[in-house]
Amino acid sequence: MNTQAKDLWNRIIEKNSNLGANGEEVLNLQPGATAEEFRLIEKTLSITLPEEMKSFYSIYNGQVWTLGVEPFVRNLTLSPISEIIENWKFLQEEFDPDDLLPDIEYGVEVKPMLWNQKWIPIAENGGGDYLCLDTDPTEEGVVGQALYFWHDWGDRTTDAKGLFEFIELCLNEENDCDN
User: Fold this and answer.
1) How far apart are alpha carbons 112 and 97 in whole angstroms?
2) Which of 48, 73, 77 lies closest to 62, judged by CA?
3) 49 — phi, psi (to 5°)?
């Protein structure tokens, strides 16, 4: 098991334990993903999962959102693999991968597409926006880079070179706000 993934989960849980409750409970964390679940998502999405995602999800398979569940970082709920697959299928139906909007800002590391079927929507904010891991970057990008898919805003640039870097960035932002 990846030590960095375990350390990040411990920090996320500890942050939420500071709210006066058991961090695992307020996050509604699900038991770690199985090899079968990893195979299912890879087959369904026709991708190879980034190793950081596998490490992270092998500890906890996301969250199930209900009233009172805290976000794992920022305002994001980490989707279990079954929900990632549902969200991905929904996005596949909603967006034609060949659609381009002239007002969308694309980073040099992201292919200029409204929706890319090789993006993995791992977290959501409940408003139609998703944090995705990009398994089909440009030559300037990195497989597994984190980017936001905004349903109503034209920005497709990366936030971090990977899931761990993204979580670290979020946790550091929250620590900076506490000081």
Assistant:
1) 10
2) 77
3) -65, 140
Residue 101 pLDDT more than 70? no
- Beta strand pairing call for 155-156 and 105-106: parallel
The CATH number that applies at residue 57 is 3.40.1580.10
Q: Which residue has the higher pLDDT, 97 or 144?
A: 144
Residue 40 sits in which domain range? 3-178
| Angle at CA of residue 169, ends 24 and 140, nearest 5° | 125
Secondary structure (DSSP) of 138-174: -TTS-TTEEEEE-SSS-EE-EEESSHHHHHHHHHHHH
Note the pTM of the prediction, 2 decimals.
0.88
| pLDDT of amino acid 179 | 38
DSSP assignment of 73-116: BTTBEEPPHHHHHHHHHHHHHH--TT---TT-EE-TTS-S-S--
Of 48, 179, 46, 154, which is closest to residue 101 (Cα–Cα)?
154
The structural domain count of the chain equals 1
Does position 155 have pLDDT exceeding 60, yes or no?
yes
